Amino acid sequence: MTVQPIFAAVAAALLFLATLSFVASPSAGAQTTAGPAVSRDMIGIVVRDPWYEFGTHPAYPNRPNYIAQERMGQILAEAGVRRVRVEFLVRDRGAGSFAEQIARYDYFINEVAPRHGLSVMGLLGFGLVDIDPRDRAYGLIARTDTDPVYGGGVNPYMRLWLDRALQIMNRYQGRVAAYEILNEQNRLPAEQGFAGGEGIDPVLTGRLHTKLYRCFKRNECDHRSEDPAWRAGITLVIGGLHPRGSDVLLPSGRRLMTDRDYLVELYTSEPFSSYFGAYGAYPADALGYHPYPAEIRLAAPVEEEVGRIDQRLELLRLRLRQALQATSPAAAEVPLWITEIGYNAAYLQQNSAGQAAFLRAVYRQMAARSDVAVVFWFKYEDFPPLSGPNAQHWGIVRIPFVEDPRCPGGACYDPAGEPAFRREAYFTLREVAGLPVERRFLPLVGR
């Protein structure tokens, strides 16, 4: 018998016990809370989309993974989460019809979310159409014409996107409380032959946004509701803007536009201005923003990072006030929804302790602002790659997975959805929500 295996076992036990939360008995260990609790209605998180958890459990082939989705709902409730963001995705090849793919979300939205007190925000992003919006022939920037249903300035991409978005919204009615319209439309990622950093001209995104808002909130166009009263209570959020702004705008090729300028051009665009002229209000219930710290300043201390985020929100608000002060000052006070903010614990010198500290500081600072309604933490789970210089350790939990192109999204997750561990950020989220956090520690023993 050697000593090394014993120490290894003790170390493993210490690590396991140090990452558990106990809430039943105050005598079990030290109970900690730090600072006043943040309103639970402010606490949101970006979850593992139900699109990926379909047919992944051997007991339920060709059906939703009921086990993994239910487990996620349980853990989110335990963490103090009140809001979740899910993205609606459609693949035109090999994943079934549009209706079949949207049905993948039914179990989570209709059963899991209400069972665990979770309010759902649906992301209606570029993923609704399986064509890159930057494609000049078939994307959102393609040539437009007059559509018999949606009016002028519409191309096939826009028509399909609007059709699909309105079908989803009618399907779930009030069971989805909010929708985010597009996502980082001012700065798209590098993929499918595009360099990344491209923004879609705000006239085009404003047109898409306004047509959806008019069709939905005013019950016009196709996909009307016989009793549209429920629509008034649904929050429609301008898609979260990326803080780095646009390197180039498409299709015009204009260079360099800040996030603030993009917002102003959106509000002063012909679609937004026409809607305001007709109805005396802008087609927006909330403004989405993604203040990732590394995009504002690289590798600053946590307090400085959060301070700069606060300053950036002030600049964003100031620019909107300046742009609208002559026409509609009240419209500049639209609530801010932080629809993504997170911290990759594997990035450069970052780690799990820094992630937890950043989460705590973000929620405390955003709760101190009167204009921030909700903050969605990015993200619930880690995703590929697991290791290497591009590792993605954003989650409050790690669900075991292996990268495999045969699985949805290119990774096979544990079919039970059971985390291998909870990061410190999970416990910090409980703390922020005002829930008790207790830890047990093994006593020190002599040799």
Structural account:
- The structure is a single chain.
- The protein has twelve helices and 19 strands.
- With 447 residues, the chain is of the alpha/beta class.
- The chain has one domain (44-439): Alpha-Beta Barrel (TIM Barrel), CATH 3.20.20.
- Strands 2-3-4-7-9-12-13-14 form an eight-stranded parallel beta barrel.
- The longest helix is centred in the last third of the chain and has 23 residues, at 302-324.
- The radius of gyration is 23 Å and the shape is globular.
- The model is unreliable at 1-33 (pLDDT under 50).
Structural class: alpha/beta
Strand tally is: 19
Question: How many helix segments?
Answer: 12
Helix content: 25-40%
Shape call: globular
In which order are the strands of the major sheet placed?
2-3-4-7-9-12-13-14
State the CATH architecture. Alpha-Beta Barrel
CATH class: Alpha Beta
User: Cα-atom Rg, whole angstroms?
Assistant: 23 Å
Mean pLDDT: 91
- How many domain regions? 1
Largest sheet: 8 strands, parallel, barrel
Head-to-tail CA distance between termini: 16 Å
The CATH homologous superfamily corresponds to Glycosidases
Percent of residues in β-strands = 15-25%
